[in-house]
Design goal:
Helix 4 (89-107) packs antiparallel against helix 5. The protein is α/β, with parallel strands linked by helices. The strands form 2 sheets. Strands 1, 2, 3, 4 and 5 form a 5-stranded antiparallel β-sheet that branches. It has a 5-stranded mixed β-sheet with strand order 8-7-6-9-10, sandwiched between helices. The longest helix has 26 residues, at 227-252. Helix content is 51%, strand content 14%. The chain has helices spanning 13-22, 24-48, 79-85, 89-107, 124-132, 134-137, 141-151, 155-161, 182-202, 227-252, 259-266, 279-286, 305-314, 346-358, 366-382, 398-410, 425-446, and strands spanning 55-65, 162-165, 172-179, 206-213, 219-220, 294-298, 321-325, 336-339, 386-392, 414-421.
């Protein structure tokens, strides 16, 4: 009697790996799609439609802190202090004034005097003094706007260009000016150097400011483009998702791909495939008896039993007839109708139906009569017969196999063996190959020279 328990069925690791190898083109395609879906947009965003080129100027200042009355230096100027100070008005105002003075000095080549009058009646000297002492003298918004116009940028834009930090020593301040224009970068850097000197002169905590390193020209900032990493990330993510999906699909798949799976799951012997070497020997052993020939029963409607019967005859396995699945797939009691191909005639079958029908006309309904008639035909045709169940490989028909075996059990039909039809012979050979290799290796170890014992 057949038994089936999916919960207790172990996972066939070898078959699982072989099926993964067969899906290697799918995995390769998933990897390429992952690289394209992640690396492509990343390349478009970062390179093709990426931000404009940036130029930076990095300057190192050495700060000599003043000594307090107790003999210790002022040390409360830390990294956070400089990062905040560089974007405060105390620095941005000085930088804008220095840039405005430089722009006006460059624009007025004919007048070398520092106090030359401007169009609005103010001198270049006057703007610098007024802006440097804005809070003390109550500088107006108009003067700030005028300075920004002369400098060529606003205070908010300037703050976005500036950055200051301390890499190691608290006495070394590193400033960075970053813009999209190399000339503008150097103008801001030159103004920043002057502003740092002025700031050091104004603070009692600072004794002096020295320049350790000043660039001669702005350098191009290397874009942080990681297209290769993005492609690898997309490939890895796509492979993981695809492998996880395939793993779930393979584990939940109830189709039969190799004979060993069917025997382990249902406990019914399997002859293998029509190409198996041991097919004829197993058929003669399992179907020896009164009939000596099995009847073919197909699980799937689309299985051509005529073709199966012909293939078996070519291998020397003779059959007594075929039974195909009927159109009523939902009829649990008896859903199979036989094609008469053995020694019984059609007329004898009709007489048998008439005899059985007379016993049912008294107490049974029409629907029940038809169902019982089909069951009677099936019982009579399979009486004293042995069934060879034809299972199509990879058809996802696990539940139909169970249903077929259950109907055969209810009808008292003996399913002696099964045959795997339309199977992948390469998959079966690859599955069985490790056993053959291991067997050959053991024989080689027992007889390294290939010599036989001689009498």
């Amino acid at each position: 009697m057949w038994e089936c328990s999916y919960g207790k069925e172990p996972v066939d690791i070898r078959l699982l790996m072989l099926r993964f190898l067969r899906k290697s083109p799918v995995l390769l395609l998933a990897a390429l799609l992952g690289m394209l879906c992640v690396g492509g947009p990343y390349f478009l965003v970062k390179v093709t439609f990426g931000p404009a080129k940036e130029y930076e100027a990095v300057t190192d200042f050495y700060i000599d802190y003043a000594v307090q009355e107790n003999g210790e230096e002022y040390t409360y100027f830390n990294q956070t202090t400089w990062t905040q100070l560089i974007t405060d008005d105390v620095f941005t105002d000085k930088i804008l004034i220095n840039m405005a003075d430089g722009a006006m000095n460059a624009g007025d080549k004919t007048d070398d005097e520092q106090g030359a009058p401007l169009q609005d009646g103010k001198s270049k000297q006057g703007i610098s003094v007024q802006e440097s002492k804005g809070k003390e003298k109550g500088a107006t918004d108009f003067s700030v706007q005028e300075t920004e116009k002369a400098a060529g940028l606003t205070k908010q834009e300037l703050r976005e260009y500036l950055y200051a930090t301390m890499l190691s020593d608290t006495r070394i301040v590193t400033t960075t000016v970053t813009t999209n224009d190399p000339e503008l970068t150097m103008k801001i850097e030159k103004a920043l150097v002057r502003a740092m000197e002025e700031f050091g002169e104004e603070q009692k905590e600072i004794a002096g400011v020295r320049i350790l390193q000043e660039p001669e020209e702005a350098s191009l900032v290397a874009a942080d483009v990681r297209t290769f990493r993005a492609c690898m990330l997309g490939m890895a993510a796509a492979l993981l998702v695809t492998m996880f999906y395939l793993l779930i699909y393979f584990v939940l798949d109830e189709g039969i791909y190799i004979p060993a799976t069917f025997e382990r799951r249902y406990g019914v012997p399997m002859l293998g495939t029509v190409h198996s070497q041991e097919l004829k020997m197993l058929a003669e052993k399992l179907f020896s008896g009164r009939t000596g020939r099995p009847m073919l029963l197909a699980v799937d409607e689309n299985t051509d039993l005529k073709q199966v019967e012909k293939a078996l005859e070519e291998r020397g396995v003779l059959t007594a007839g075929i039974i195909e699945a009927g159109a009523m797939r939902d009829d649990i009691d008896c859903r199979m109708v036989r094609k008469v191909t053995d020694e019984k005639s059609i007329e004898e079958d009709r007489k048998a139906i008439v005899r059985k029908r007379s016993a049912l006309e008294k107490n049974a309904t029409d629907e029940k009569k038809i169902t019982i008639e089909k069951e009677i035909i099936f019982r009579e045709e399979t009486e004293d017969k042995k069934i060879l169940l034809i299972v199509k490989a990879g058809a996802h028909n696990g539940k139909w196999i169970e249903k077929t075996l259950d109907i055969c059990r209810k009808c008292g039909v003996d399913v002696v063996a099964a045959l795997l039809w339309d199977a992948d012979e390469r998959l079966i050979s690859a599955y069985e190959m490790p056993e053959h290799v291991l067997y050959a290796w053991r024989r080689l170890r027992r007889d390294p020279g290939g010599k036989k014992d001689m009498d």
